[in-house]
Amino acid sequence: MRRCGKNSARCAPPADWAETPKGALALCLALDQLPRNLHRGSPAAFASDAEARAVARQAVLVRRFDLALTPIERAFLYLPFEHAELMADQDLSVTLFEGLRDTPRHAAPGGAIDYAWRHRAVIRRFGRFPHRNAVLGRSNTVAEQTYLDTPGSGF
To answer: Which Gene3D superfamilies match (predicted)?
Structure first.
């Protein structure tokens, strides 16, 4: 991760944030959620996805920091996997979100678990998120365009 600098395109939070459960969560939010909202409609929205997944992977699979967090905090720590265009990360996302099944907010129709399954289905079908294609300069396949033309296809 790059630090803020005079010529830096983006700034990275301190790496030592990843040393505690709340710090790892904050770092994931800074690398996953903030860019998506600050840079919506730009490739920069996805520029730190790999870094967010690396932080989340360490926090969840190695340190098990997610177990020290509330269900809503855990959901945000799991989002980098849901946002990935890799099937293995989608499978992990669904597994992690299914662990929140006892939390009514997440298990309700349209809740976090439902979204995890929907994201996974898109990656299983296309190998990528077609709604990112235009922003990332990728051409749509005929199947992707048909999907994108279907009401409710986006997230």
So the answer is: Tetratricopeptide repeat domain (1.25.40.10), TPR-like (1.20.58.320)
Q: What is the pTM of this model?
A: 0.89
What's the pLDDT tens digit per position in 76-104?
999 999 999 999 999 999 999 999 988 87
Query: Does the structural domain 17-149 have CATH classification 1.20.1740.10?
Result: no
Structure tokens that stand for 129 in this block: 């998120």
Burial 68-99 (b: 16+ CB within 10 A, else e): ebeeebbbbbbbbbbbbbeeebbebbbebbeb
Q: Which residues of 110-148 are buried (b: 16+ CB within 10 A; e: fewer)?
A: ebbbebbeebbebbeebebbbeebeeeeeebeeebeebe
HSE (CB half, 13 Å, CA atoms) of 64?
Answer: 1
Q: Tell me the domain boundaries of the chain.
A: 17-149
